[in-house]
Design a protein that fits this description.
By secondary structure, the chain is mainly α. It is about 55% helix and about 5% strand. The protein contains twelve helices and four strands, in the order H-H-H-H-H-H-E-E-H-H-H-H-E-H-H-E.
Length: about 300
């Protein structure tokens, strides 16, 4: 019969054998697989080596500094207790090393004031200095922000920054005839022939949604001063040409020529202020009336 000691030894040997066999079987596929070549260059190896040495050096300096502070704590405490040092800024920093956290928690802490109401005492707790300095910094930052963005022309506000980014984006795409970011400089047409052609196009294609007199049905009213996507002639031209698919406004490019789109745009703008019956309530933002300005 096996003794307890021999049984324990046998158990340890069996466990060690199983562990070694498991490691051997786990390493077998790695041994079969071809070794991958090292991809780290000499410069990368040198960089990481220097970075490791620097980290080790900083750790050693930190440990040495903490050791020196711990060994010199009695002398630092004597220096901190000097009247000429205790209440100075450098003295408060020194206080952190000797256990006085006035610099962090404030000067006063749970001091009982002379206010006693039905046995309820009032304590005086100083605001933490870091909070005071942070609050002062926010005030200074606010003045600097307002001065930089609102009183000078150095900083761009959100709308100006958006316009700048749109102009930059327009440089990255083709500025062809079908580019929706291309800026146009059309003037509304005013000749009777163009307005008559625009009216005919409007009644055929636009009246079902905007009404025969542009009073608005499914689409918005086109005779007031409110516009959803801009009331200037080039904005209206762009809306008609490319449409607003998310709101059911179809794109008329490919169905109408550029001349026809400008004619119907000019006709729609000529209806500004006509005040038709049963006009739909205003939608969008108010803009100056976009009446035809010049003949073309």
């Amino acid at each position: 019969m096996l003794t307890p000691i021999r049984t324990m030894r046998l158990g340890w040997l069996t466990a060690a054998g199983l562990l070694l066999s498991g490691l051997a079987s786990a390493q077998t596929p790695a041994a079969v697989a071809p070794a991958k070549p090292a991809t780290m260059s000499e410069q990368e190896l040198l960089f990481w080596l220097l970075l490791g040495v620097l980290g080790l050096l900083l750790l050693v300096l930190l440990l040495v500094g903490l050791t020196v502070i711990f060994q010199m704590k009695p002398q630092l405490r004597q220096l901190y207790d000097l009247p000429t040092v205790h209440d100075t800024w450098s003295g408060k920093v020194l206080g952190l090393l000797v256990g006085d956290a006035r610099l962090v928690r404030g000067e006063y802490r749970d001091e009982v004031l002379d206010h006693d109401y039905d046995g309820i005492h009032e304590f005086d707790n100083d605001l933490p200095p870091w909070w005071k300095y942070g609050f002062g910094f926010t005030i200074a930052f606010a003045f600097g922000y307002v001065g930089y963005y609102h009183f000078t022309t150095n900083g761009q506000l959100q709308i100006a920054e958006y316009d700048t980014e749109m102009r930059q984006a327009a440089l990255l795409v083709s500025a062809g005839a079908d580019d929706p970011t291309k800026l146009t400089t059309y003037a509304a047409l005013t000749t009777a022939t163009d307005l008559s052609s625009g009216k005919s196009i409007y009644l055929t294609n636009c009246a079902p949604c905007h009404g025969a007199n542009a009073e608005g049905k499914v689409g918005p009213n086109l005779t007031d001063e409110f516009w959803l996507h801009g009331g200037e002639v080039n904005h209206v031209y762009k809306t008609i040409k490319y449409g607003i698919p998310s709101k059911g406004m179809v794109a008329w490019k490919g169905k109408l020529s550029g001349k026809q789109i400008l004619q119907v745009t000019s006709y729609a703008l000529s209806l500004q202020g006509s005040k038709p019956a049963n006009a739909k309530p205003p939608q969008g933002e108010k803009e100056a009336a976009g009446k035809p300005l010049a003949s073309r």
